[in-house]
Amino acid sequence: xxxxxxxxxxxxxxLRESRHLSTAELxxxxxxxxxxxxxxxxxxxxxxxxxxxxxxxxxxxxxxxxFQLTT
Length: 71
Prior knowledge:
The protein is an all-alpha fold.
């Protein structure tokens, strides 16, 4: 079973790749370091709520898509 970190990692990488962006390009657009994007995609940490909101807004997806919330 995928963990929440695995889901977030997969979602962020998929969204980034769907826009044909490098990790550096996404980092620049989000105003974070490339290392931050890489760490998120590697599942090393969860995004803060403000960063998750920023990612959701950038990709124009609901916040729930970032966290893959299920009921």
